[in-house]
Design goal:
single chain, alpha+beta, 2 domains, three-stranded antiparallel beta sheet, 4 helices, 9 strands, transmembrane, DUF2140, membrane, transmembrane helix
Length: 194
């Protein structure tokens, strides 16, 4: 049985045409990964990156007090912040030529906008019982506080406008979780990328 060269040539031509046609077909069929490229173009148009920072009470206490010392280095700083199961302000008040110990305890309440409300729970001024609103007003009037801290003596609270913090490179901060009992503290850092 002999196959003619015409049939072989025609068969080869058909096979080659099918291979070339299949190749051309695959060139024009959209690939699924094209969606990923479209997502990349959407990502590259985003102006801010949201990073989450998780920390603990010990490290955050150290950072807060370092910030206070650096921010108020030209003033006599006679208070510190301590994070235990509550937020504690520990310091002293000058009265009658002496320094009287002051310890205030606050319950931190994260706000939906990323700020932190500190509701005053207890206060100790030496051995004297003073009205909480009086002590808060005294602290507000006589202590150097960061501009993003607001004391409301009537409501017996302190409002920490964390979102108003001015950080380097225009980075903004938001409180995400602030559960001191479980040592679950996290912040979002919103970093501009333009």
């Amino acid at each position: 049985m002999k196959i003619s060269w015409k049939k072989l040539f025609l068969g080869t031509m058909i096979i080659n045409s099918m291979i070339i046609g299949t190749f051309i077909l695959f060139l024009f069929i959209p690939e699924k990964k094209t969606e990923d490229y479209n997502n990349y173009s959407e990502i590259s148009s985003i102006n801010d990156i949201d990073l989450t920072v998780v920390t603990n009470k010990k490290d955050l206490t150290k950072l807060i007090n370092h910030y206070l010392e650096a921010e108020f280095k030209d003033q006599i700083l006679n208070y510190k912040v301590l994070l235990t199961e509550k937020v504690m302000l520990i310091g002293s008040i000058p009265a009658f030529g002496k320094e009287i110990d002051l310890v205030m305890t606050f319950e931190p309440i994260p706000q939906k906008n990323g700020d932190l409300l500190l509701e005053q729970e207890s206060i100790s001024v030496g051995n004297v019982q003073l009205p909480v609103s009086f002590v808060l007003r005294y602290i507000s009037d006589n202590y150097a506080l960061p501009g993003w801290i607001t004391i409301d003596a009537a409501e017996q609270s302190v409002y920490a406008s964390i979102t108003d913090l001015q950080l380097k490179s225009d980075v903004n901060v938001r409180v995400e979780t602030f559960n001191l009992k479980n040592d679950d503290i996290s912040f979002s850092l919103i970093v501009p990328v333009e």
